[in-house]
Amino acid sequence: MPETKRTAGGVLGGLLGVVGLSAVAGVLVAATVTPAIALSGAAASSAITLFDNLPSALEIDELMLPTTFYWMNPDTGEYEVMTQFYDQNRDPVTFDEVAPVMYNAILSSEDKNFYSHGGVDLVGTARAVISGGSQGGGSSISQQYVKNILIQKCEAEVGTGEDADMTQEEIDAAKIACFEDATVASGVEGYQRKLQEMRYAIALEQKYSKDEILLGYLNIANFGGQNYGIGAAAHYYFGVSPADLTLGQAAALAGMVQTPNLYRLDRPDGSWTDKDGNPINSAADGYSLTKERQTYVLNRMLADGKITQEEHDAAVAEPIVPVITPADTGCGVVPGKAAYFCQYARGIMENDEAFGATKEERTKLLKQGGLNVYLTIDRRLQAAAEQAMTDNVQTSIEGYTNDLTGRLGAATTSIETKTGRILEITQNTLFSETITDDPNYSSLVYAGNLKYGGATGFEGGSTFKVFTLLEWLQEGHSVNEVLNGNVQVFKNFRNSCFGDITNSTLINNFAKSPGYVGTPMRFTADSLNTGFLAMASQLDMCGIEKTAAKMGVVRGNGDPVEVRVPFDVLGSNNIAPIDVAAAYATIANNGVYCTPKAIDRITDASGNEVALPEASCTQALEPNIAATAAFALQGVMTGGSGRASNPYDGTPILGKTGTHEAKQTWLVASSTNVTTAVWVGNSDGDADVSRWPWNHLYTRHSVARPILAAANTLYGGDSFPAPDTNLTKTVYYELPNVVGQSVEAATKTLEDAGFQVALGNPVTSTEGAGIVAQQDPGAGQVAGGATVTIYPSDGQGVIVPSVSGSVDQARSTLQGAGLNVTGGTCKNSNDTVALTGTNPGAGAMVARGSTVNIEVSCTGPAPKPTKTP
Question: Cα 380 vs. chain centroid, distance in angstroms?
Fold first, then answer.
């Protein structure tokens, strides 16, 4: 263990530095510039003035520390490192976490008198100033600590402020300049830099202990590339902690600090080239330059009595064998599809104003701020989603393109309904930020929006119809009202925000379905376009737009959604899957909308809580509206278009399917606890994905079903609240009388009134052929959804006329009406015949040519008078 107590000589050295350094430094500078007058009073006086005017205090900024993303291990319940982001790979250690051999190696090679001087090695500094740096830096560890602090301050400002638009090449060059300015400046600037360095070093010695300075130096020093500090260096080059370094390893690392990129051990093909361009310091030559420098350090340790001759010889004889162990950095090192969750969270850190006013400030915080970021991801559900994606969707359609355009894409995301915590994000592609010309790879997060994921969302299709359903309920309509959902031009639409719309466009249903007269309940289960257009034509379209907005839905590029034309009702807006999931989670959560979030908490390097982006759970829908919508949406998953996604495991779920012009397909479903959105479609282009060589409509179900089953197993779910009886009541309608109308006119009258129409067989009627003669049920109040059967006339009906007078007159009247006549006679020809009526009777409806019987009464002749005897 190195000495830790100051000696009397150390105190004296400090006093000499404070009291006498100005004069000494002045003489040194004068001797270098004009040796002939080195001892002149004028030169000394001038130098002293220069030194005294330099700043005397150096603020030690917080070290540039990696930001670490954590995810929870479901088996242990403990957080584990997912990945890190850094400009400088650094793992700060405490004094006792470094092997004594490392301290001895750095002290012997860099500053053997560290614990006895006052911060400045005057002889070494004089040698460095006189030689212009050609004979080494001559700096004490305190001075080297100062250099590294100044380098870090300089590097921290690169690419910020006015230089925010620098390219990566320019940033790298600027960082090199930071190093050179602090270490190899020559001439007058070099002298002034050395004097300033000395003054700062003396100030550090007055403020901090020797141990603090030594540890600070080892935690800040560069060890090649992006590796800073002994903690990161030991792990990166040898795969060990600094407490476990061997003598040879410690000597190799101690030797690096003078020219770190020359001696680095992670370039087996050579870290340097000779004058002929041949690689040197490679695995092939045993890292010759580093070995030579290591041997120097070991020699110094032997001379200082820090090691024995035997230890020295063994370490010199031992070859340098690096065990390169890169630190996990960036999302590319995250296994599987979870890389996309990582990328989404990174997008939040780099683009949300909660972490800085500018992009460069936020990126600097991410890569230098030393934050601990705890993610919301559930690795169990993530694994299930990844398996479902891998089993059912290929990474691209390469080899099947032919005349097709576009790019196969698929994404899933699941959200905890009551908190907004994002539990999983997956997609079909492989993650890479460097491969841009292979359709199998992408760094875009399809589930996210442009701000956080780099994607712009996808046309929501019929998943967007839910906002029309909600507005329907909010305006007091029942899901059991009856509407004419047949294919037709819906002409008039109200919009209180942007003006009413007169439409002339015919919009069809999927697969050219003709539609039907039905209820919103049935329209929702079947996802009938014309049914929702019929609903929208009775609503304020501005209200539909506002309903979507208050449930957190925006376009993928961040712009508000628009419902300006009838087609918008059917899902023409591009929306991120995360926003779709959050909207449906609102319905499952009794109308409470929770902002989606991928980060549970953040702490800084000291363990203090860091403020997260603003997020909240707010009542976006009245509970009765949400409950009734959930009632309708459950029908989608039990007998409607989403039933193929239902795992049927006893957990109640609601949901909705969606397609958009055969280009995008969706399934979003939710229990009371977890909402999952699945999108499969064209991520780039306008190809009709139905022409791609897989069942695009069913794929969404095969992906969704195992994810829903896993979510239900992990989180469960309760029954949804009962719907509002006023919003599910049967609505009675006035059935008009259409008898006497043509079949066409009667059909339109009934359908316009919201009824379905069935055509019965023709019936005998006095109405003309094709004129409605009967309807069932008849006119009056009937329940919504009733089917009215209309019966056209065959045109052959005759009303039996009323007859009077003689039988002959009656016969003539009946025959004139087109009827056959029977009856009208008596058995006894002598009887008196009296007309009594007809059968069928007068007013009866009979077919033309029917037989009508004349009914008469017969009475015999009057009896002759009887003579009285």
Answer: 18
